[in-house]
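Late entry, evening session. Most of the bench is empty. Finally got around to the prediction I had been postponing all week. Sequence below, unchanged from the version circulated by S.P.
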Amino acid sequence: MTALRAGVIGVGHLGKEHARILSGLPGVILAGVADVNAAQAESVARRCATKAYADFHSLLDTIDAAVIAVPACHHHAIAGEVLRRGIPVFVEKPLASTLGQAEELLALSQSHAALVQVGHVERFNPAFEALQKRPLTPKYVWAERLGGYTGRCTDVGVVLDLMIHDIDLLLALVPCAVQEVKALAVSVLGGEEDMATARVVFANGCVAELRASRLAASPSRRMQVWGPEGFASLDFAQKRLTLVQPSAELCQHRNGHRSFDTATLARISQDLLGRHLQMLEINGDGCDPLTCELKEFVHCVQTGQRPRVTAEEGCAAVALASRILESIETHSWDGTASGATGPHALAMPLMPLFQLAESSIAA
């Protein structure tokens, strides 16, 4: 099979890792890297033994496939130009910064018969891969994705920066229409929202609660999924999945709507975990998720196979993120139709939080 000539557009924090991985994949020639920061492009090109371009248009003449890792606000413009040439493209998440732009990229992919894979890397996390092999029917999903402030991705808020990961995972777990969205967020640093929480209700009765922050003291990437079959806890950072299922005895009593007698309750309380709530811990192995998704992109370009995260799925994630952002903008902080709304409208503090209130001092 002829080697695939790949190029990376945008070689900043994440793009340089894409370039490093592609330069080492068998059957791939890293034909070049492009970045508006010429010095950064040159530095990455030297490390990866390839050519640097300050203008990505020149790179397009030399490649069979492109990886786009520029800021989200530029995904639409750059991916659009690549797709119009019929070149397969890997676009980092989110697919675009607005639903209209995402839908246009989807349409371009279809009209030019050019493959699009979206970089929702947590789909390739071994913990999530292991969960998808299990017969768990989600009825309640809780997720939090917390990180410190890095100064990157400030062109979008925390919903499209961090929460979008869990939005995509949620839609992969619950392939059902979204019935209701309620959300609120706060802008702390004056730009887009920095902390957000959302409640999503699906037509099949599943309820999901998502939380994201880029101002957290400690990072966290966790998800919990509850269903009639049991409970799953995922730690994406540790690539670990913990499963808990009720014993046949517990299921029998639950399904029969019978209460336990005193003797049974005493026996269960002594041996709840292990016998009645059976636990299985799965530690993820395999390759790095970023490497895995790039390997899949190369394979799909070479074979025509459908990628795990298509343009349609990337578009669906942006669609739900847009509904969350719309709910954030209309959330009333005092509960009235005429009150202040949106992430920038939270009332000024009455006093410093560390100061004791007068009523507390008097007590």
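Two things to note before I forget:
The chain has a mean pLDDT of 91.
The chain has 13 helices and 14 strands.
Will write this up properly tomorrow.
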